[in-house]
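Q: What changes when ribose-5-phosphate is included in the input?
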Amino acid sequence: LQIFTGNANIPLARSIASHLNLNLGRAIVGVFKNGETRVQLEENVRGSDVFIVQSLTTPVDHHLMELLLMIDALRRASAQRVTAVIPYYGYAKQEKKTTGREPISAKLVANLIATAGADRVLTMDLHAPAIEGFFDIPVDHLQAGPLIADHFRSRNMKNVVVVSPDAGGVGRANKFRERIGASLAIIAKQRPAPDVSEVVEMVGDVAGKHAVIFDDMISTGGTLAEAAKTLKERGAISVVACATHGIFAGNAVELLGDSVMEEVLVTDTIPLPAEASAARIAQISVA
Ligand code: R5P
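A: The predicted holo structure follows.
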């Protein structure tokens, strides 16, 4: 078994390898002077069961290309089986057409990964579970919910309400609520423009309770910041948030740092930005 990584999330790849008492496979994954991605494996992989750890994080197109070229190099070097470990699957929010003449980008990315020669994909908390079906190769779709629930259970918090920050996340939040033994509240949100979030209504009782917002990803942070404001207005004693993927796009860290939230907890599917701890953003590992 060998583990290689691109440049998207080297700390996570190292951490996975260390759990397995392995060194990361040696490879050059860089850029030629003309801007093209350069990959060269520096180890023999013939007949090996190879895992490539590569989240599709910013710059997502570049990291995708690294992944595709690494898969191709492994195939051509006679690896026996290649598994693409994609802890965060970018392009997942473009899994359907929302208006005419748009691509279905998540499907195209799935085609590219399979065409490059991956035998299997291992990923976590896909934004839309249907993306699993975009692949004609086996997909292991892992969830961070049990890990995050363990973390909360160890805090022995009482009087907790789990909050889904939008209608699409209710199933996910309900499972999490069952795991930590809490009640449930649901926020209905709307997006008047791309990347802008507004709370429309909230269902459930949060007054006098500790609210834990549970989401799959944090991008601009707008969904969480707006949800937290509403929860405080409705009488929540405290608000924390947790999500599998911390993308923290644009000024998300600043927005969350200035929000009424006491803490934001994400996993390490994506590396944390340097300024995260000052904004009360913490990380647990899925390694
Ligand atoms: C939405 O469907 C997702 O579950 C997240 O709530 C959303 O992606 C968060 O985006 P943002 O942080 O930009 O509001």
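Observations recorded in class: The longest strand covers residues 210-218.
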